Amino acid sequence: MLSLSIPEHVEPIRQKVLNFIEQEIYPVEAELLADKVSSRRGELMKGLMQKAKDQGLWALGHPEEIGGGGLPFMDYVFVNEVVGRSEIATVALGTHSLQDSIMLHRYANDKWRNKYLEPLVAGEVFPSFGMTEPAVASSDPTQLQTKAELEGDEWVINGRKWFTSGAGNAAYTTAMVRTEFDVPDHSAFSMIVVPTDTPGYNIIRDVKVMGQADGHYEVAYDNVRVPKENLLGPRGQGFKIAQDRLGPGRIFHCMRWLGQAQRAFDLMCDRANNRVAFGKNLGEHQQIQKFIFDTAAEIQASRLLTLHAAQKIDQGDEARIEIGLIKVFGAKMLHNSIDRAIQVHGALGVTEDTPLERMYRHARYARIYDGADEVHVMTTAKRILRVYNDGAKFDFGLR
Amino acid sequence: MLSLSIPEHVEPIRQKVLNFIEQEIYPVEAELLADKVSSRRGELMKGLMQKAKDQGLWALGHPEEIGGGGLPFMDYVFVNEVVGRSEIATVALGTHSLQDSIMLHRYANDKWRNKYLEPLVAGEVFPSFGMTEPAVASSDPTQLQTKAELEGDEWVINGRKWFTSGAGNAAYTTAMVRTEFDVPDHSAFSMIVVPTDTPGYNIIRDVKVMGQADGHYEVAYDNVRVPKENLLGPRGQGFKIAQDRLGPGRIFHCMRWLGQAQRAFDLMCDRANNRVAFGKNLGEHQQIQKFIFDTAAEIQASRLLTLHAAQKIDQGDEARIEIGLIKVFGAKMLHNSIDRAIQVHGALGVTEDTPLERMYRHARYARIYDGADEVHVMTTAKRILRVYNDGAKFDFGLR
Amino acid sequence: MLSLSIPEHVEPIRQKVLNFIEQEIYPVEAELLADKVSSRRGELMKGLMQKAKDQGLWALGHPEEIGGGGLPFMDYVFVNEVVGRSEIATVALGTHSLQDSIMLHRYANDKWRNKYLEPLVAGEVFPSFGMTEPAVASSDPTQLQTKAELEGDEWVINGRKWFTSGAGNAAYTTAMVRTEFDVPDHSAFSMIVVPTDTPGYNIIRDVKVMGQADGHYEVAYDNVRVPKENLLGPRGQGFKIAQDRLGPGRIFHCMRWLGQAQRAFDLMCDRANNRVAFGKNLGEHQQIQKFIFDTAAEIQASRLLTLHAAQKIDQGDEARIEIGLIKVFGAKMLHNSIDRAIQVHGALGVTEDTPLERMYRHARYARIYDGADEVHVMTTAKRILRVYNDGAKFDFGLR
Amino acid sequence: MLSLSIPEHVEPIRQKVLNFIEQEIYPVEAELLADKVSSRRGELMKGLMQKAKDQGLWALGHPEEIGGGGLPFMDYVFVNEVVGRSEIATVALGTHSLQDSIMLHRYANDKWRNKYLEPLVAGEVFPSFGMTEPAVASSDPTQLQTKAELEGDEWVINGRKWFTSGAGNAAYTTAMVRTEFDVPDHSAFSMIVVPTDTPGYNIIRDVKVMGQADGHYEVAYDNVRVPKENLLGPRGQGFKIAQDRLGPGRIFHCMRWLGQAQRAFDLMCDRANNRVAFGKNLGEHQQIQKFIFDTAAEIQASRLLTLHAAQKIDQGDEARIEIGLIKVFGAKMLHNSIDRAIQVHGALGVTEDTPLERMYRHARYARIYDGADEVHVMTTAKRILRVYNDGAKFDFGLR
């Protein structure tokens, strides 16, 4: 049975996380997000991480067996919306490593598991993930060009990737590379762990994205050699492992988008209640009321759609159609919510004096990363049509 | 706790209703909806009603105490989506009289309750409801002009109403009229039962709406005299009673809109799978895939929003904000779903050969009746802003 | 050089046409458009036609050599916007036969030209055009199934068409049929004149469209035999002739859509200035202001785009890209303008008491006839991309 | 008579400007726009300015009498679209000072005219304009708080402004301040010239906007004293002078937006023709075709609307309605064009490797500066409704 309300036992921890974000993170957020690397920055972040650990808020969704808080999936989904309020929170609360930790835990050999897993979960070392390449449209990942060839006991990797987020201070990158050459594309790619200090792993630049160097690195793989056993899982299973990672990952993304949107909504409503133009509060003008109305409807619709998809996943369903829907619907909701909040703030809304402009810029990638909207539209519609082709109807599974 | 899945015990009855609609109603629907009154029409409808009674599908949502099926509110909500597939179904299954029966049951004096209630629930007589007036914008109902003045033991009613749906074959009309003249507008209106054979109750015409005479009558009240006790409930409580009627009524509307939209979606997908243009099925063209994707997302979003609002009402909350959201969001979803289904059908889509064109025309009123969109936007946004003004945040009540 | 203002010498005739429509047509429009064939209807229409002739307003755009008013193309374009105000006007002013007259004049043999051309231009007989078929998606006309095979000196035609507008009282139908079977699809179709009294030309029904029987006939061709010389132009040139017809025809459509939209806009603004809700005129509410603003922008944008396309055609350019753009942009503008006008009228807007609801229903086909939107999007974008592929840029030809 | 084609005599100069931008500016644009002040930056810009002067492309639209190129208004409008391709071009070609030069020329006393005008037009000193204030919603400028009080022969100015663009390297700021205190708001403001080295003129910061410090300064006026004769024009005429400045200024803005949009469109089409996904060029996918189609229609519609407004202004009309329409319509077109171009570029589109991401960020302010969209919607709709209220119809002036 699907339940879309916040479970009672989740409320206290969700509230505690929200308090932490509002009281500990908001006051230092602007400083932590500023362009230039302040000397205080690393220190500040470490302080936040320690406080989160002290308050029992660290890595809440990681399995207990690898040192996490062990929140069940659905509980964590509800918490994750709140985490999304600030982009600082994912690192400050240790949730950033969830997917990489699980991938390592599940697929890595003992050596790497022993070496990286504990410090990864503890936030002492950072992971990174390398998939997107500048030379091909990543929306069709069968086109990826980076390849690894087995020479003796080593993989020799050549190619170029970008959007390897966090490569600059990561311990290793999990690289998605072609390892098979005579098989169908979907069985041709594998995941390989590449420590960032491996010779030939050359960071080209921190690509500026929407005006900011945020750690989306371009990395050249020039005859990078790593041991054969750095393979994650079996050869040719790269897409499968990526899918394992992406499914729940998209749920988490979508919940965090809701956190962003709700924050924008709160700011918009407060502004509408407190700023005057033409003799009355902005909120008494119907055009502003329309913004508030539409945003409320889109946020709540998106939230319910996301929770529904989450529950299907929690019940063991892959929920491909539902995830396709929320990826696109949610990214649009995210943009619209922030966009309208900016408009209600007028000139202030585009300045550094509110978090909105940065949220707006970030929201733009949401329609591209994890699969461009257009790809989700195509594949999701095809899945739906297949249901009808089989003589059934698609009832969106309210069961 | 909110649960948005179809309860297991509701599935069988919901399926039975769906089967009835697909097998009994669809084959005769076009004939029943055609313009001209065929001689077979009344007979056909009576046959359907009897079949529904025989199969235990009659008046499922009416309270047992007044002769109905007694389905609890939330169960009935799920059934109601299916009822919405065909506009014929509401009458054929006896759900059309639900709100009027309850109003009569709750507020009428014994005389009228005894006279009308039983045949009303049984579908032997028909109710009608008179609120909208041609002379004023009904979106602001404080402007309504029809008035009733007490002369001795009788109300004398004068005015003109239209969109008194079904007046042509109704036993009576519940008229919303001004009875108080020295009080604030919101306490100035009352509901009065007016048998349609009362002298002075003059049907002017069956106003054609979107090209069809569908029973939206214009009625002149020329010194209509009815006994004092025809008042429903206390004097001046008209708006309160209307609100009691409208709240759950809007949930039912929205669920039936979902039924319409789902039917359009099913037709669209089947067409996309079976019609060829430019060498492949329509469904293989991305513009059509976009239609399917967007429609799926909007239907499912609307369904979840409506179920959420329903559950809040079921828990005793008035859910004014939630109802405002679904009224507007749902009406748009309804239009969009049918509109896209028509487009995928091409020229066929605007002809009488599918139910889509009629559904399309009907969908246009959805943005007007029960309060124009613009009014819901205004009042709902104000309610939301009030929450913030009180220092709280609006979290859409996922509890 | 492109000029987008109404030429001074066109103003008087344009104004005269507008006056005729407002003073002669509006008062009888509702009666002429009503469902049932009133006995007065034919008479009324004949009266209007005679008046138009008497006032020198008849067939203004037809070439002088075939008995028309001889207005140059661009002058007629400006007049045509005004003609569009009422769908009655095209017939009452004799503009309805323009494209068929020209086609006959240009391509028919002497026999048919002598027989039909004069009474056609004079409005004494009516043409019809048969292209769309129920069995295939007409958006891809290479799929059309109706075929004509030469047996001796006669074409033998078999197939089924619908949307043969006006077939019910037409003298003849120009049928688009496959005559060639071993050539590429685009050279396989021809136009053949079929008198409606030819044996085997069987009218099946007047297909109801958007709730109304408006003369979109379904016609079966059952071994219809017509003389060889009924061919219009050379064999296999059907698409070319259709294109000749469609290019300027789409300009005329788009201008008439502007007439419809402007009428809706005028009605909307008058209503906004004269109806009160919540203590002030509708026009003082920002949501209504937004409707007015958006409609003004869309109408004017559409008008300028259409005039630009018209001038390119006038200069001998086929203007395929420009025509593709206005077909889709204009149809959307048309819908939006009428839709918003309805909303501002509230319940009144969906009734027969204003022309809006009928305009709304008609507007729905605009996205389908003369090529579904989706086809124009596809072909127009391809044309634009071809320009870039050739190393040029597309500057929309402001020359 | 309105003519919307590029006049023949304008083509060569327009083409020359375009060549300059493509050949001289594009190659150094990224460097000039980069965040950090490179040592080469000032030098590079000076080099471009000199080259533009050498090629006769400097200050083309400034009146000849003040040392400009003397292009007539409409000619300059067409050139200005091309200037808009790169934000560097306005300064490199000397067009940036047009409005301030004219204001100075028209309203300043001899002292300032002699001191600033020549070097201003020559690009040797820079102007700035101070209107927006952080403390009030500038969309309603009657709320501005900065005031100047006459003490003896000096104005004493106090207040705080931001978005004083370019204040950091400007010679002076024209400040809009309240000088009258007992008159209606619209006659209460004046323009005063404030040299930036005046004591009390304190630059607080270069406010970061959409992630970048682009010269939108916050400036405190702490008892700033300037001579009485620094007043521009008569006392209380601030709004009138601002309006003189804004009307044509908005035309220039809108034309430059078209330049931006056309550049995005060119990039999008080239990408669509050259990037492969799922086995074919992006441009062969219908979702991408839809982007191209919609963008083409919106750009061309916006261009024609803007040219129409420009011509009305050129004919002496204030064209308030037309300017209101293009401000909002154009800003949306600008966003949509860039947004779709980004989407077609995928991940590349949000990086620094194309100009698109910066254009996207800039486009966001277009809906706020020079009056928020919502204000234009309100005032423009009111103007339209006034026409109808006077018994006329609004025909958008195609004369």
Q: What features would you highlight for this structure?
A:
399 residues; alpha+beta; Butyryl-Coa Dehydrogenase, subunit A, domain 1; Butyryl-CoA Dehydrogenase, subunit A, domain 2; Butyryl-CoA Dehydrogenase, subunit A, domain 3; four-stranded mixed β-sheet; four-stranded antiparallel β-sheet; 11 helices; globular
List the helices and strands and how they pair.
Four copies of one chain form a homotetramer.
Chain A: H1 11-33, H2 41-54, H3 73-83, H4 87-92, H5 98-107, H6 110-121, E1 127-130, E2 147-151, E3 154-165, E4 172-178, E5 189-195, E6 201-209, E7 212-227, E8 231-232, H7 238-274, E9 276-277, E10 280-281, H8 286-314, H9 320-345, H10 356-365, H11 373-389
Parallel strand pairs in A: 1-4
Antiparallel strand pairs in A: 2-3, 3-7, 4-5, 5-8, 6-7, 9-10
Helix pairs in contact in A: 1-2, 1-3, 3-7, 3-8, 5-6, 7-8, 7-9, 8-9, 9-10, 9-11
Please tell me about this protein's structure.
The structure is a homotetramer of 399-residue chains. By secondary structure, chain A is α+β, with helices and mostly antiparallel strands. The first copy, chain A, has three domains: 11-96, Butyryl-Coa Dehydrogenase, subunit A, domain 1 (Orthogonal Bundle), CATH 1.10.540; 127-235, Butyryl-CoA Dehydrogenase, subunit A, domain 2 (Beta Barrel); 240-389, Butyryl-CoA Dehydrogenase, subunit A, domain 3, CATH 1.20.140. Chain A has eleven helices and ten strands. In chain A, a hairpin with a 2-residue loop joins strand 9 and strand 10. The mean pLDDT of chain A is 93. Chains in contact: A-B, A-C, A-D, B-C, B-D, C-D. The interface between A and B is large, with 54 and 53 residues.
